[in-house]
Design a protein that fits this description.
The protein has 312 residues and is α/β, with parallel strands linked by helices. It is built from 10 helices and 8 strands. Helices cover 46% and strands 12% of the residues. Strands 2-1-3-8-7-4-5-6 form an 8-stranded parallel sheet, sandwiched between helices. Helix 7 links the parallel strand 4 and strand 5. Helix 1 crosses helix 10. The radius of gyration is 18 Å and the shape is globular.
């Protein structure tokens, strides 16, 4: 199973910054130690042209040249630096590379990504480029070039925060279905309209969350037939998350992951995994939630390989 990382492209942050940048390197270290069957690979960068499939050329150029305004930097939540831009290109590139691998192997992953608050012309909420949107668009372009037909993509966003940037980018696009389960009263305070939004109350626990997810997946299946799914497996619905406001246990989050992977497996839909948010009071809890997601992913990746062998 291929998984792409970009954590060694260090984004310099001020002392005391609240974004837990260390979680990415910790996850890669745990995967390397505990799951040697996962093939960890350096993420490639996305080009300006690839980013321009989603983002406005003016926004891409402002970031590349360092002319992005102080206000825009505050919206993103990171100070501008060349390293910030390079890391963001690599994070988007990881989802692109994982999408190509998933279309071939059934499942692949980005150890970061899920930067769903980035709009076409601006960033926000620690998100610079919208990796899921770029990957979806680029996979559609590549499919059209090869086969002269569309690639329908579903983005299943289970980060605790609504994917407002993703929803806005695809608001008029019938080829991409956006599904978001999120905290109703959490950031962003102005929500965009996804194809299917499921707002949840503060303190939502395992049982009602999983019931809501079951209903949402059933609705998705009735309304859309994707040939690729990009899954944002946020760790921030966890009960120990600083920014989450929901109360899912580790067992509940693992059950959430199994539902999504199983929904795709039953329909033989390739799946791209991105990790999205996670802000645990204890950073090791965030990493453990993510590691559990990879253990579920590994189970389903093995199923895909059995299927591929049988087809030979």
């Amino acid at each position: 199973m291929q998984a792409f990382y970009s954590d060694h492209f260090v984004l310099p942050l001020p002392v005391g910054h609240r974004f837990p940048m260390a979680k990415y390197g910790l996850l890669r270290a745990r995967l390397g130690a505990d799951m040697p069957g996962i093939c960890l690979q350096e993420a490639p960068p996305t080009s300006d042209g690839e980013l321009a499939l989603v983002h406005t050329p003016a926004y891409v150029q402002a970031l590349a040249s360092g002319t992005i305004s102080p206000q825009a930097q505050r919206e993103i939540g990171f100070p501008w630096s060349e390293a910030m831009v390079e890391r963001s290109r690599r994070s988007a590139g990881a989802t692109v590379a994982a999408a190509r691998a998933a279309l071939r192997d059934g499942l692949a992953a980005n150890l970061a990504g899920g930067t769903h608050h980035a709009y076409a012309d601006q960033g926000g909420g620690f998100c610079v480029f919208n990796d899921a949107a770029v990957a979806a668009r680029l996979m559609q372009v590549e499919r059209t070039r090869r086969q002269r037909q569309s690639l329908p993509v579903a983005i299943i966003d289970l980060d605790v925060h609504q994917g407002n940037g993703t929803a806005h980018i695809f608001r008029h696009d019938p080829t991409v279905f956006t599904l978001s389960l999120h905290g109703e009263r959490n950031f962003p305070f102005h929500k965009e309209c996804s194809d299917l939004d499921v707002p949840l109350p503060d303190g939502c626990e395992d049982v009602p969350y999983l019931q809501a997810l079951d209903t949402a997946l059933e609705t998705l299946g009735h309304r859309f037939e994707p040939e690729l799914v990009i899954y944002l497996a946020g760790a921030d619905p966890f009960e120990g998350d600083r920014l989450g406001r929901l109360k899912l246990s580790m067992a509940g989050l693992e059950a959430r992951d199994r539902r999504v992977f199983d929904w795709c497996w039953q329909r033989r839909i390739p799946l791209v995994l991105a990790m999205a948010g996670g802000y645990g009071v204890n950073i090791d809890d965030t990493v453990q939630v993510q590691l559990n997601t990879y253990r579920v992913a590994w189970d389903y990746w093995q199923r895909w390989q059995t299927l591929r062998v049988a087809a030979r």
